[in-house]
C-alpha cells in the first residue's frame, strides 16, 4: 500500500514525479538518468491487486463464470498508510459484483483556536473516550496522528483534557487561559490540539452485491483483537453470528463458519451489509 500511495522512492508516484508518462522497468532511475526500459509492464499488475486483495472480489477455487464467488478483503489496521475504506465493483456476465467496506479506528482529533470551545465526540453512543493521546494548549504543530509541542505549551494540557473527557461519550472544553491554569505564553496567538482514542464497539462494516444466479462466501475479517468466539456479526438488523456460532433466521444467509482471522457467511444473490461488533 505504501508503494501505491507514496511519491518517494520506490513507488509509482515517484515515477510520475520524475516525469514518467509510462511505467518503467525498474524502480530506480530519474528524469535525468534512465535505468532499463522506460515503457515496460513489469510493475503493471497492481490493478488486479486492488480488486482481488483490497476489495477481496475473487472467483471461488475451481469454478468459472462467476457462479461461485469469494469476497475476502484484506484489511490492514496498522502502518503508515491505513485505508479507512474501499468501494469497488466489477461487471461480469452474471451482473455487477460489488464490495464496500469501512474501518472505524476510534481516533479523533480537533484543533481549536483560543477563546473557542473544543468538543470531542465518539462516533457511536455506546462508545466512550478511552484515552487522551496528545493535548497541547499553546503553539503545537503537526496534524492528526503527528501532533507535537513547539515552543509554548501549557504544562497540564493533557491532564486537564483527560479529567474532563475520559470515560465520556462526548465532552466540551473552553479553550481559554483559565482552563489551563494561566497563559503559557504572553502576547502569542494560541490554539489547542487534541488527539484522543474512543472505544470502538463496531470497528468494521461491509456491504456486498451478489448477482442473480450466483452464490458467495463473504469473509468478515476479525479486527481489534476480536475472535470468532468474542465477536458478534449483524447482517442489517439481524444477528447472524454470536457466541462462536451461526445464528439462523436472516433471509439469504444460509450458514457460516469461524476461522482464525475471519468469519465466513454463505449467501445467495442480493445485497447484504455486515457489521462486526464486540460481544
Could you tell me the strand content as a percent range?
35-45%
DSSP strand count = 17
The pLDDT mean sits at 92
Low-confidence stretches: none
Q: What portion of residues is helical?
A: 10-25%
The computed structural class is mainly beta
Order of helices and strands: HHHEEEEEEEHEEEEEEEEEE
Major sheet: arrangement of strands: 3-4-10-17-12-13-14
Q: Name the shape in a single word.
A: flat
Largest sheet: 7 strands, antiparallel
Radius of gyration: 24 Å
Compute the number of helices. 4
**N-end to C-end Cα span:** 31 Å
Give an overview of the whole structure.
- With 279 residues, this protein is mainly beta.
- Helix content is 10%, strand content 38%.
- It has four helices and 17 strands.
- It has helices spanning 2-5, 12-17, 46-54, 157-165, and strands at 57-59, 68-71, 85-92, 95-103, 107-113, 117-121, 129-138, 170-174, 191-198, 204-210, 215-221, 231-235, 238-242, 245-246, 253-258, 262-267, 270-278.
- The chain has a seven-stranded antiparallel β-sheet with strand order 3-4-10-17-12-13-14, with no helix packed on it. Strands 1-2-11-16-15 form a five-stranded mixed β-sheet. The protein has a three-stranded antiparallel β-sheet with strand order 5-9-7, covered by helices on one side.
- A hairpin with an 8-residue loop joins strand 1 (57-59) and strand 2.
- The longest helix is centred in the N-terminal third of the chain and has 9 residues, at 46-54.
- It is flat, with a radius of gyration of 24 Å.
Amino acid at each position: 500500500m505504501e508503494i501505491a500511495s507514496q511519491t518517494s522512492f520506490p513507488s509509482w508516484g515517484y515515477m510520475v514525479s520524475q516525469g514518467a508518462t509510462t511505467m518503467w522497468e525498474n524502480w530506480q532511475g530519474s528524469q535525468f538518468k534512465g535505468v532499463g526500459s522506460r515503457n515496460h509492464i513489469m510493475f503493471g499488475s497492481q490493478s488486479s491487486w486492488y480488486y482481488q486483495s483490497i476489495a477481496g472480489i475473487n472467483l471461488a477455487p475451481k469454478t468459472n463464470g462467476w457462479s461461485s464467488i469469494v469476497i475476502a478483503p484484506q484489511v490492514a489496521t496498522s502502518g503508515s498508510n491505513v485505508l479507512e475504506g474501499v468501494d469497488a465493483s466489477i461487471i461480469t456476465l452474471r451482473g455487477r459484483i460489488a464490495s464496500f467496506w469501512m474501518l472505524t479506528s476510534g481516533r479523533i482529533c480537533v484543533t481549536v483556536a483560543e477563546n473557542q470551545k473544543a468538543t470531542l465526540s465518539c462516533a457511536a453512543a455506546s462508545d466512550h473516550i478511552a484515552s487522551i493521546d496528545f493535548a497541547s494548549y499553546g503553539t503545537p504543530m503537526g496534524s492528526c496522528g503527528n501532533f507535537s509541542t513547539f515552543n509554548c505549551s501549557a504544562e497540564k494540557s493533557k491532564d486537564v483534557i483527560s479529567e474532563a473527557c475520559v470515560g465520556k461519550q462526548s465532552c466540551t472544553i473552553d479553550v481559554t487561559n483559565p482552563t489551563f491554569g494561566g497563559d503559557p505564553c504572553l502576547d502569542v496567538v494560541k490554539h489547542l490540539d487534541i488527539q484522543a482514542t474512543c472505544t470502538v464497539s463496531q470497528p468494521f462494516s461491509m456491504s456486498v452485491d451478489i448477482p442473480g444466479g450466483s452464490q458467495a462466501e463473504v469473509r468478515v475479517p476479525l479486527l481489534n483483537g476480536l475472535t470468532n468466539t468474542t465477536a458478534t456479526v449483524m447482517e442489517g438488523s439481524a444477528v447472524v453470528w454470536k457466541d462462536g456460532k451461526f445464528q439462523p433466521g436472516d433471509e439469504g444467509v444460509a450458514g457460516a463458519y469461524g476461522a482464525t482471522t475471519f468469519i465466513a457467511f454463505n449467501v445467495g444473490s442480493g445485497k447484504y451489509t455486515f457489521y462486526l461488533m464486540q460481544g
